[in-house]
Amino acid sequence: MTRAVLSLGSNLGDRLAHLRAAVAALGDAVLVVSGVYETPPWGDADQPAYLNAAVMVADPAATPRDWLERARAAERAAGRVRDPERRFGPRTLDVDVIAVWDAAGEPVLSDDPELTLPHARAHLRAFVLRPWIDIEPHGRLPGHGWLTDLLNAEPLAGDALELSPRPDLALESTP
């Protein structure tokens, strides 16, 4: 079994619907979903604000590459178009594989340029760390440390203040 943390983001079209569709596409693999946060754009400020969330998933048969393929399939379903000229540009849906653990609970490490694990910049992104803390309050980013320590360290402390919780928005319906 592998377990993974995926980061979801959208700033084009019906942002909430894109996030909900990504969660739905992951189906029974979803263990828990974070709250939704509205965040300013990162890397390229000339674009709309994002909605961000995190999802913990597990599947006894999934490999790290399978998680990447599921992420890409969700992006394609949302009409994601990658602009090679604008790396951090707007997108209907962005699904990143942040970290993966094997059946023994050990972190999977990869320096493959297509799937670096853990995600190479997760420790620098409040919009990844804060939602992840929702679903794993005592979580650790492999190779970097406790999520709460990373979120409160400079320079992220300022970024964390710019995240707005959106309790009015839910990714999963409650029975």
Question: What would you say this structure looks like, in words?
Answer:
It is a single chain. The chain is an alpha+beta fold and 175 residues long. It has five helices and ten strands, in the order E-H-E-E-E-H-E-E-E-H-E-E-H-H-E. Strands 1, 2, 3, 4, 5 and 10 form a six-stranded antiparallel beta sheet that branches. A two-stranded antiparallel ribbon has the order 6-7. A two-stranded antiparallel sheet has the order 8-9. Strand 8 and strand 9 form a beta hairpin. Helix 1 runs antiparallel to helix 2. The longest helix has 14 residues. The model has no long low-confidence stretch (mean pLDDT 91).
Percent of residues in helices comes to 25-40%
Kindly estimate the percentage of residues that lie in beta strands according to DSSP: 25-35%
Can you count the helices? 5
Low-confidence stretches: none
Average pLDDT = 91
Profile the largest sheet: 6 strands, antiparallel
How are helices and strands ordered from N to C? EHEEEHEEEHEEHHE
What separation lies between the terminal Cα atoms?
28 Å
Radius of gyration based on Cα positions: 15 Å
- Based on helices, strands and strand pairing, what is the structural class? alpha+beta
> What oligomeric state is this?
single chain
